[in-house]
Design goal:
By secondary structure, this protein is α/β, with parallel strands linked by helices. It has a single domain, classed as Double Stranded RNA Binding Domain. Helix content is 33%, strand content 32%. Strand 4 and strand 5 form a beta hairpin. It is flat and about 65 Å long. The model has no long low-confidence stretch (mean pLDDT 86).
Length: 172
């Protein structure tokens, strides 16, 4: 009985190895340098995006506006918005459910102004139940959900940046 199980496991190993499974790796970009322009104010997703781009180790991330022309592309974060909208109330009019929304608008251009990726808006939303008796914990939960949505949106931006194909330069 034991040898039969071992034979089945040994036969399954090549099938699993050949299925194409691979661990997720840092994306490959068609450019080597990027300028990240954040909106005025606090753009937490922009800062997280900067960190994620730097972590890849494949890009030079330029944040100084004086050096923006040294970058092959410029990522411009146009707007970041967090919203908490009431979507449910009980018979007494008390809030029972919120919808949390996180939006990020951005575009990518070359230093010459050519749009490589036109303005894009990525939005994530999630419903959250609410109770007045647990208001503090629900506020903490909402902040955690916003952080998770922000991280997901940043990963989506990275995937879109990796999908960009630049035209070959004519350096003659």
């Amino acid at each position: 009985m034991l040898t039969r199980r071992l034979l089945i496991a040994a036969a399954a190993a090549p099938l699993l190895a050949g299925c194409g499974f691979a661990l997720r790796q840092a994306p490959d970009f068609a450019f080597r340098s990027i300028y990240v322009e954040l909106p005025s104010g606090n753009a937490a997703s922009g800062h997280e995006l900067q960190r994620q781009l730097e972590i890849t180790g494949k890009l030079q991330v330029i944040t100084d506006a004086a050096d923006r022309n040294k970058a092959e592309v410029a990522l411009q974060v146009l707007q970041e918005a967090r919203q908490r909208v009431v979507v449910g109330r009980d018979a007494a009019g008390n809030v029972t459910e919120f919808q949390l929304r996180f939006r990020l608008r951005f575009r990518v251009r070359t230093p010459a102004g050519k749009e490589v990726l036109p303005e894009v808006e990525i939005m994530r939303q999630i419903d959250q139940s609410y109770s007045d008796t647990a208001a503090l914990s629900k506020d903490a939960e909402a902040q955690m959900l916003f952080t998770d949505m922000q991280s997901d949106v940043v990963q989506q931006v990275l995937r879109r940046l990796a999908a960009i194909k630049l035209e070959p330069r004519n350096d003659s």
